[in-house]
Amino acid sequence: MRGEIIFKMSGSGNDFVFIDGRASPLERWTPERIRLVCTRGTGVGADGLIVLEPGSAPGHVRFHFFNNDGIRAGMCGNGALCAARLAAWLELAPAEGMVLETDAGPVPARCLEGEGELAEIEIPVPTPLSNPGIDLVQGERSMWLTTVGVPHLVVLVDDVGRVALETRGRELRSHPGVGVDGANVNFVANGGSSLGVRTYERGVEAETLACGTGAVACVAAMALEGAVAIPCPVRTASGETLTVTGELSEAREFTTVRLTGQGRMVLRGLLGG
Predict the structure, then answer these.
(1) Do 86 and 147 have their domain in common?
(2) CATH number, domain at 25?
(3) Does residue 96 sit in the same domain as residue 25?
(4) CA–CA separation, 99 and 234 (whole Å)
(5) Are 224 and 240 a contacting pair, CB within 8 Å?
(6) I want to staple 104 with a disulfide (CB 3.0 to 4.6 A). Which of 56, 149, 182, 230 is the partner?
(7) Which residues are catalytic?
(8) Are the C-beta atoms of residues 144 and 136 closer than 8 Å to each other?
(9) 131 inside domain
(10) Which of 39, 14, 49 is nearest to 207 (CA)?
(11) Beta strand segments in the chain, E
(12) Is residue 250 scored above 80 in pLDDT?
């Protein structure tokens, strides 16, 4: 297994190690090995690891996602944006249109032309918002629970810069009100024409610089409250912008949700033993 080719990708600062499953099969990637590779300082360093394989039909790509703790998860928005760019580069699927087969269901994707190394995905529709019944602390206005491929707690705050994210995020991530599996915690502030979001991500157990499905969860919550217009730019902790588009029906359902953002290749290299 020495000398395996890996790719490191960044989706607005949310970074991933990618594996071409045709050359390095999925069964080689045990939880222990994923943790070793994703550990910063002693490994490559990443928020997660993704294995891409040919899908079930032409133009389809199988997408296997693991958080950096080695635990498999159903979906990752920024990971999917990066996967679209890399799948086209690896000639697994055409850049103008493909389907990523994720554990959360099929995700149509395409690469966008021009600068910025951008891609667009049609993301799973957020489940209906529910109130988790968690007590608010100073600076918090409301909370909503939803699932966008994976569970998200959306916390509307006065100022994302003032959130004690490591402590409050850790507390809420495993709160009984979000369910036994926990949830990503997204702190969001309304800037009028855009949203500012910071995320404490389960599996990483720390802040990540961006969260694609979290951005969608935040826009869904704010749009259903009538607080933002769609399309809505989302400012991430990295300073990059994700854009969420969709349709809000008369029944107050958020449908045909698309996420646009960066899928930038950082490096291609050889992994040691």
Answers:
(1) no
(2) 3.10.310.10
(3) yes
(4) 24
(5) no
(6) 149
(7) 76, 211
(8) no
(9) no
(10) 14
(11) 4-11, 14-20, 48-54, 60-67, 72-73, 98-102, 105-111, 118-122, 140-148, 150-157, 184-190, 195-201, 206-208, 232-235, 241-248, 254-262, 264-271
(12) no
In a domain, 134, yes or no: no
| 259 and 216 Cβ atoms separated by less than 8 Å | yes
DSSP designation for 259 = E
pLDDT band at 1 (very low <50, low <70, confident <90, very high): very low
**Which SS3 state, helix, strand or coil, does residue 37 take?**
helix
| Range(s) of the domain holding residue 240 | 140-260
**Predicted TM-score (pTM) of this structure:** 0.92
Kindly state the tokens that stand for 74. 């159903």
Express each pLDDT in 40-55 by its tens digit. 999 999 999 999 999 9
Number of domains in the chain: 2
Residue 192 tokens, joined: 């009028």
